[in-house]
Amino acid sequence: MCSLERNCGVSLSTDVDFSCLKEPEALRLIQHLARFDHAIHNSFTHLEASTIVKFLFNLGHLINAANHKLQVKNQAMDLAQARLLMFHCSRTVLANGMRLLGIKPLDRM
User: Fold this and answer.
1) Judging by beta carbons within 10 Å of its beta carbon (0-12, 13-18, 19+), is residue 40 exposed, middle or buried?
2) How would residue 6 be classed by pLDDT, with cut points 50, 70 and 90?
3) b/e sequence 7-29, b meaning 16+ C-beta within 10 Å
4) CA-to-CA distance for 74 and 5, rounded, in angstroms?
5) Residues with Cβ < 8 Å from 67, sequence gap 6 or more?
6) How far is CA 103 from CA 3, 10, 95, in A?
7) Mind listing the pLDDT tens digit for each residue in 50-87?
8) Of 61, 88, 99, 109, which is most buried by a Cβ count within 10 Å?
9) Per-residue confidence (pLDDT) for residue 2, from 0 to 100
10) Would you tell me how many other CB atoms lie within 10 Å of the CB of residue 5?
């Protein structure tokens, strides 16, 4: 996802119109991202790191599905910026969850 941000030709902005994200893959991904705090809280309450692992595993699947279906490059600017920010937020949540588990996220392979 880091390479998507580097190579898409769109600048990352927080001033985007999310109403253009209507695809089921985008909506499922955004709804899952919204549950990150809940996953952390449950993990802490029940002392189960597996709650975060399961959340991140599902997040990875949702990111992959969205990445295959939703292009950023060569799209209308408002749609491209909204999708790019969605993928950026996904990468940030994934990295934060990995750090909570003691795993260092990679920017390049």
Assistant:
1) middle
2) low
3) ebebeeeeebeeebbeeebbeeb
4) 14
5) 1, 4, 87
6) 20, 29, 9
7) 999 999 999 999 999 999 999 888 888 899 899 999 99
8) 88
9) 63
10) 16
Amino acid making up residue 96: N
Amino acid at 82: A
- Residue-level length of the chain: 109
Candidates 23, 56, 24; CA nearest to 39 is 56
Residue with tokens 């003691």, as numbered in its chain: 102
Both tokens of 48, joined, read 């189960």
**Is the alpha carbon torsion for 83, 74, 3, 66 positive or negative?**
positive
Token pair listed for 6: 């580097």
Cβ–Cβ < 8 Å for 87, 29: no
CA gap 9, 71 in Å, rounded? 12
pLDDT of residue 88: 93
